[in-house]
């Protein structure tokens, strides 16, 4: 027995001494350092520099079109949080846009003539307008927390009818059908009005100045929404969207999350409304009709449901298409100049992004952002090879 025990011990010692070469190499091998930049990182930097430099080269038409796209992207991100990530259909997004726009105008405007205003500093008025929109969403949030699907869509559709009725009748605050002039933004003595400011020999008007405000707001809203979706709230929202009963069984407060996301989405719309008011410099009821809500739904479907980047891509597509068709209506076939008969640029753009919605639903369920992500993945894999 002792001989057998000695033999076993000798074999174990030999096994410890004879370490397999691959295992030894794995232990002694050094890790390959990661590259300092991810593939495609230079593209993001180049894109950011390009956006910062555009006011020096583009005319006012394209700068205003870009500002419209930024405001639309902010509102679309908020709607995507509600519809794309939580699965709640909202048809009243235009109502919260109007609350933000008219709230800013009334809070920052002065009481002159037939108009009523508080005359607050414009930066404070913009902040309070967003808070006011959140309060309006909070008043509706108990309903949003309990309804879903088409029932919630019909309920939010009523908000637009009520909002347009209030705008038409509260003429001392809104100006009625003729609208009301919007006070220019002023931050710590720097005015974002029409007065020109020379920057590197280029005259900067209101559009050029507001360009950087819009970029900062869009970047902040996108990063915040991305953080929400990647954290615990985002996982809870996706669980509610995919299977609300299972989410409730796992301990997710479904009604509370639905109500909270509805308030957050309304605040995004309010901020978008403030930016739109600053760009338009005059707010009228026609800017916040039912068609606007449908356009926002088209933005998130075309861009990609549940994706921050998809909301931005869809907003740029839907908001820029009418501007491009109007600009080049003389050179495009089947598109007539507004007021000359035929298919107007607005009608043509509606047909095109309506067809885009159908095409995305049938052939590209992930939206246009899926194409961008697929192309980025292919380029990344090519660089690794």
Quickly list its features.
single chain, 385 residues, two-stranded antiparallel ribbon, mainly alpha
List strands and helices in order, with pairings.
Layout: H1 2-17, H2 21-28, H3 41-53, H4 60-85, H5 93-108, H6 122-146, H7 150-169, H8 171-174, E1 180-181, E2 186-187, E3 190-191, E4 197-199, E5 202-204, H9 206-230, H10 232-242, H11 244-249, H12 254-280, E6 282-283, H13 290-303, H14 308-327, H15 345-363, H16 368-384
Antiparallel strand pairs: 1-6, 2-3, 4-5
Helix pairs in contact: 4-9, 4-12, 4-13, 4-14, 5-6, 5-7, 5-12, 6-12, 9-10, 9-12, 13-14, 14-15
Structure, briefly:
The chain is mainly α and 385 residues long. The protein is built from 16 helices and six strands. Helices cover 69% and strands 4% of the residues.
């Amino acid at each position: 027995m002792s001989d057998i025990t000695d033999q076993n011990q000798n074999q174990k010692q030999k096994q410890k001494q004879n370490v397999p070469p691959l295992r030894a190499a794995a232990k002694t091998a050094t890790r390959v350092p990661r590259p300092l930049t991810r593939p495609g990182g230079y593209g993001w930097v180049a894109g950011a520099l390009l956006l910062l430099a555009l006011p020096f080269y583009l005319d006012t038409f394209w700068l205003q079109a870009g500002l419209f796209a930024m405001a639309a992207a902010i509102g679309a991100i908020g709607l995507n949080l509600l519809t794309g990530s939580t699965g709640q259909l909202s048809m009243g997004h235009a109502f919260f846009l109007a609350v933000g726009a008219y709230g800013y105008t009334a809070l920052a405007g002065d009481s002159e003539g037939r108009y009523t205003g508080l005359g607050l500093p414009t930066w404070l008025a913009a902040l309070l307008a967003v808070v006011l929109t959140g309060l309006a969403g909070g008043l509706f949030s108990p309903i949003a927390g309990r309804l879903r699907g088409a029932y919630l869509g019909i309920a939010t559709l009523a908000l637009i009818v009520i909002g347009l009725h209030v705008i038409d009748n509260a003429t001392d605050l809104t100006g009625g059908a003729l609208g009301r002039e919007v006070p220019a933004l002023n931050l710590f003595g720097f005015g974002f009005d029409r007065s020109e400011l020379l920057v590197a020999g280029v005259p900067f008007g209101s559009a050029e100045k507001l360009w950087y405000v819009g970029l900062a707001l869009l970047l902040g809203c996108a990063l915040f929404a991305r953080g929400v979706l990647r954290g615990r709230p985002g996982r809870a929202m996706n669980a509610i969207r995919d299977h609300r009963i299972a989410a409730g069984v796992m301990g997710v407060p479904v009604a509370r999350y639905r109500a909270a996301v509805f308030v957050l989405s309304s605040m995004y719309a309010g901020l978008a409304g403030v930016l739109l008011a600053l760009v338009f410099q005059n707010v009228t009821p026609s800017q916040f009709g039912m068609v606007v809500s449908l356009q926002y739904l088209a933005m998130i479907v075309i861009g990609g449901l549940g994706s921050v980047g998809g909301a931005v891509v869809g907003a740029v597509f839907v908001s820029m298409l009418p501007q491009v068709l109007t600009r080049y209506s003389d050179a495009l076939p089947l598109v007539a100049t507004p007021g000359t008969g035929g298919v107007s640029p607005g009608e043509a753009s509606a047909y095109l992004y309506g067809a885009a919605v159908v095409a995305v639903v049938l052939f590209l369920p992930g939206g246009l952002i899926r194409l961008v992500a697929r192309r980025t993945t292919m380029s990344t894999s090519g660089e690794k090879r």
